[in-house]
User: Which sequence fits this backbone?
């Protein structure tokens, strides 16, 4: 489908490659609840499965270029459309040495947590899209077969100084 729409090219022994970069303005991003459309005939919901401060796993520290004394808040959520599992998201929000993890308010929107609860101004975003095979845990949560193809999206949000502040994978 992506090739038919001209977003990727496919060729033998070279694989699939993006034809161009896509740019989405930060002011055009919607929350999960807004994805249902104006008529709201489709109900979208993000249900938090886990919400905890993790210290800072090395892989996340390296990916977000975090100083040693920073920690992260991890939020895992199930994305539902009309109560049916649609996908899974895992986000790591960087907390500076002077920031405490906000109390679990049921909010799983990373941008809202950064801006409203941590007073961080969002500067830029880098998004990568790919395809992966469903692992056992994801397949069970979403209700698909292990190994089934899934669209994978990774988003890294930076603050207005250029410091990466959040890593989200959907």
Assistant:
């Amino acid at each position: 489908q992506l090739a038919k729409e001209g977003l990727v090219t496919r060729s033998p022994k070279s694989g699939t490659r993006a034809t161009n970069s896509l740019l989405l303005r930060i002011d055009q991003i919607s929350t999960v609840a807004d994805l249902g459309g104006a008529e709201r005939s489709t109900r979208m919901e993000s249900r938090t499965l886990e919400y905890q401060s993790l210290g800072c796993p090395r892989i996340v520290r390296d990916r977000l270029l975090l100083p040693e004394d920073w920690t992260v808040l991890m939020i895992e959520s199930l994305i539902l459309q009309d109560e049916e599992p649609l996908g899974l998201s895992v986000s790591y929000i960087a907390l500076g040495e002077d920031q405490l993890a906000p109390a679990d308010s049921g909010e799983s929107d990373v941008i809202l947590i950064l801006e409203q609860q941590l007073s961080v101004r969002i500067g830029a975003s880098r998004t990568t899209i790919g395809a992966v095979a469903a692992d056992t845990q994801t397949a069970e949560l979403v209700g698909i077969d292990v190994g089934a193809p899934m669209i994978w999206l990774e988003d890294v949000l930076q603050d207005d100084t250029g410091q990466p502040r959040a890593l989200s994978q959907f």
Summary: The two ends are 19 Å apart (CA to CA). The helical segments are 58-64, 110-117, 136-142.
